[in-house]
Design a protein that fits this description.
Helix content is 22%, strand content 22%. It has seven helices and eleven strands. The protein has a five-stranded antiparallel sheet. It is an alpha+beta fold.
Length: 227
């Protein structure tokens, strides 16, 4: 499953985020509502990003939520992004503004919540622009020429090529935790020589297992990990 995630399509905008070249374009934040509780129940049930994102900003989160046509976005714990409906916002519980004290990694002038605290905001319709796909592990010249980065090939051919390049130790490292492990998540080792970054595996299953319906007959189940 991990290998499929590596070579499957992600978004051009996420590529720019990963390279530190995020351009929010016309995406703007229209209203900031302050700090809200996110405990004991999730305020917004849709998790757009739970992985460690060193470039997270309000605009990045808004673009992720905009893809799914949500009205509200919220940042938490520095790098997490949640998306919410009007119904969820209407029952959200305010928290003291001082509780939200974690600067956003991509813009220190913005505050990206804290542990179990959300900074909630709304955004312009332009944040909902369609996004173009790209391959996450194929960013450098050294890997772009390899068959597993060749989008003209079938997924089977690309996977066979990638798996064939991995040693036994590297395969184990992609499903095993590195020494930097917390109680609720762990990073694997990645494969630096193939531009495969460490992958954040969340081990929680108590968040978002049953998500709220976002429209009539449109109910999703969100599993937050692995991300």
């Amino acid at each position: 499953v991990f290998v499929v995630v590596v070579v499957e399509a992600q978004t051009q905008r996420e590529r720019e985020v990963a390279s530190g070249k995020q351009d929010s374009g016309d995406c703007t934040i229209t209203n900031e509502y302050g700090c809200f509780m996110d405990y004991p129940n999730r305020t917004f049930s849709f998790a757009a990003n739970m992985g460690d994102d060193e470039h997270m900003t309000y605009e990045v989160c808004a673009q992720l939520c905009g893809m799914f046509k949500f009205k509200y976005a919220a940042t938490e714990f520095g790098y997490q992004c949640f998306c919410g409906t009007q119904a969820e916002f209407d029952v959200a519980i305010k928290a003291p503004e001082s509780d939200c004290n974690t600067p956003c990694p991509g813009n220190a002038s913005e505050t990206c919540g804290a542990a179990y605290r959300l900074n909630v905001f709304s955004y312009s319709p332009s944040c909902s622009k369609p996004l173009s796909p790209y391959g996450h592990a194929c960013l450098s010249a050294s890997t772009q020429s390899l068959p597993f980065c060749d989008t003209s090939l079938s997924y089977d051919a690309r996977l066979k090529d990638l798996i064939g390049r991995l040693s036994i130790e590297e395969k184990v490292g992609l499903i095993g935790p590195s020494p930097a492990t917390s109680n609720c998540a762990f990073l694997d080792y990645g494969v630096e020589r193939l531009d495969i970054p460490p992958y954040l595996h969340l081990v929680e299953t108590n968040t978002g297992v049953a998500a709220a319906c976002i429209a009539e007959d449109k109910c999703v189940t969100t599993f937050i990990g692995p991300t």
